[in-house]
Design a protein that fits this description.
10-stranded mixed sheet; 8-stranded mixed sheet; binds flavin-adenine dinucleotide
């Protein structure tokens, strides 16, 4: 990505074919799709990339087994195919995880779930809905061309306990085992933005769109305020795309018919992070019953156990959703009962909440039952709004949007994103670690950056100070802070701790005060030319921005 200064220079007062508002997964996807079809593209993000819902998801690239219950078959099928594609396009960043649904002596194995898993297996194959001829003419007849998970199966007590020893006290009988995928949601957004930049898209964070310019009634650009200078700039664009997720109904051209805009009905989801010494599910995920036929999960993520999520209609502040006390209690009660443990608030190493951009359809059902389907809206001014959907389906949402641009312009420009690799894979074993950098750091870098991790390692090699961990005992390196400022437009301690590394979620108790984050502020200060006083101010601003209270 360009530096902020260079990006501002490229965007302010200039003209593009497409301007995208919003730097979450959907905005990033639209930028990549449009740029790779030959459009000139500018993307404007109000705060930081992925600061909204795209950093607050459950980090699963999945079909969504639970949507089968609602017979949302199209959505599940679409998401499963995207899941397959993401493993192919970003093998370093999207990986399969075994999911377990254990049974206990007192209860029977859930046959309905078995049927659902059969459907999940069938829907995950590339063959469904394709004729033999189509299969033959596809790139490779052999399905192995695509990553495909093993079918679900039943495992016995011994295999289950080998995977999750923590279940031993509950004396389980057996379990269903099936596969879904996990990722780091923010790194996926940054990787997509990096690819978009390779195709010429220019992205700028700290750029809040305040107005859609509609001379003659047509959306023909936007005005934005640059956060550091407070200055207002305009950018002309033939096409304006609103990809602002839960904020989508706030971006309005001057004249607009109500039905041409989505009405967002936000739903909050809370997640907790727990030390693996307190709760471990090994390298598998467990589906945990949580009352009233609801389920939550406990899964491994960056060496912690991630527990989530809730799904409740939300009327609070969507700019800074916080984990609700009731939600936290609900999640803790469910895992405590399931694993026979006694975790409390004080055991948490992190917590966060996100708000789903669900589209209100006048449907009186609860948010858990409302479809995650994406919707594309077009106002009479020509502005397109794309919202709803899921992290998993970002590519389809981007394609749907850019297909509409292409169609209304009568261009010949097919979508290429199914073939564009997202970053470049690197194997940890091929990366050379400088002195003092351990294997855990190297494999985490390979996961997070793929081939680009060499830039982090080179920096750590050239400056041993930067080879130190950001938080003692965690694999994230100070060199990553410098790279975040140089290549990823990070501008604050919060950007680095929450959205370049994920330490603000994974090691919150060790990062409670300004002293603990001073090394981060100092490295950022060196990169961004801060004075000593600004370094101090930035370090002191962090505790108030941490998502974990207290
Ligand atoms: C609790 C929870 C768990 C989830 N888990 C999963 C999961 O495991 N798997 C899955 O597939 N999906 C999951 N989802 C859904 C998924 O996270 C979202 O669908 C997706 O992240 C939405 O992306 P987006 O780009 O539309 O919105 P966002 O990520 O919110 O991006 C919108 C961006 O627009 C910016 N913006 C707003 N106003 C302006 C403006 N005026 N000018 C410039 N920029 C602006 C915001 O700052 C923000 O960065 C989950 C959602 C939640 C809430």
């Amino acid at each position: 990505m360009l530096t902020r200064a260079a990006a501002l220079e490229e965007i302010a007062g200039k003209r593009f074919e497409v301007v995208v508002i919003g730097g979450g997964i959907v905005g990033a996807g639209v930028a990549l799709d449009a740029a790779s079809r030959g459009y000139s593209v500018a993307l404007l993000e109000r705060d930081d990339y992925a600061v909204g819902t795209s950093s607050r998801s459950s980090k699963m690239i999945h079909g969504g087994l639970r949507y089968l219950q609602n017979f949302d078959l199209g959505l599940v099928r679409e998401a499963l195919l995207e899941r397959q594609l993401m493993v192919q396009l970003a093998p370093h960043l999207v990986y399969p995880t075994p999911f377990l649904v254990p049974s206990f002596a007192e209860e029977r194995r859930d046959r309905k779930l078995g049927l659902g898993l059969n459907m999940y297996d069938v829907m995950a194959t590339t063959r469904v809905g394709r004729s033999r001829r189509e299969m033959r003419s596809s790139k490779q007849e052999d399905e192995d061309f695509y990553w495909s998970p093993d079918r679900h199966r039943t495992i016995d007590r011994d295999e289950l306990l080998e995977l999750v020893p923590a279940l031993e006290p509950r004396d389980p009988t057996d379990a269903y085992l099936f596969y879904d995928c996990q990722t780091d949601d923010v790194r996926l957004v940054l990787t997509i933005l990096g690819e978009a930049a390779r195709f010429g898209a220019v992205s700028l964070n700290g750029a809040e769109v305040t107005e859609v310019l509609t001379p003659g009634g047509r959306a023909a650009g936007v005005a934005f305020v640059e956060s550091e200078s407070g200055e207002r700039f305009e950018v002309e664009a033939e096409n304006v795309i609103n990809a602002t997720g839960v904020w989508a109904d706030r971006i309005r051209p001057e004249v607009v018919e109500e039905e041409d805009m989505p009405r967002i009905s936000p739903s909050r989801g809370t997640h907790l992070l727990v030390d693996r010494d307190d709760l471990s599910t090994g390298s598998a995920a467990c589906i945990v019953p949580a009352g009233e036929s609801r389920h939550i999960f406990a899964l491994p993520w960056y060496g912690r156990t991630l527990v989530g999520t809730t799904d409740n209609d939300y009327e609070g502040d969507i700019d800074r959703p916080e984990p609700g006390a009731e939600d936290t209690e609900y999640l803790l009660d469910a895992v405590n009962a399931f694993f026979g443990i006694e975790l409390s608030d004080s055991d948490l190493v992190g917590a966060y909440a996100g708000v789903r951009p669900l589209i209100a359809t006048g449907d009186p059902r609860k948010s858990v039952d409302i479809s995650r389907k994406a919707e594309l809206y077009e106002t009479s001014s020509g502005m397109l709004t794309i919202t709803g959907g899921k992290l998993t389906t970002w590519r389809r949402m981007a394609k749907q949007t850019v297909d509409r641009l292409v169609e209304r312009e009568g261009r010949e420009a097919p979508c290429h994103t199914a073939e564009i690799p997202l970053g470049m894979e690197a194997r940890a074993g091929d990366l050379e670690a400088p002195d003092g950098v351990g294997e855990d750091s190297v494999s985490q870098l390979a996961f997070r950056y793929g081939h680009a991790s060499r830039a982090v390692l080179d920096l750590a090699r050239s400056d041993p100070e930067l080879a130190r961990p950001i938080v003692p005992g965690r694999p994230d390196l100070l060199a990553e802070v410098a790279i975040a400022a140089r290549l990823e437009q990070a501008r604050s301690v919060a950007d680095v701790l929450l959205r370049r590394t994920r330490l603000g979620l994974l090691a919150a108790p060790q990062l409670r005060d300004a002293d603990a984050v001073r090394p981060v502020a100092e490295v950022l200060g060196d990169e961004l030319g801060w004075s000593r006083r600004q370094v101090k101010r930035e370090a002191e601003a962090w505790p108030g921005r941490s998502p974990v209270a207290g």
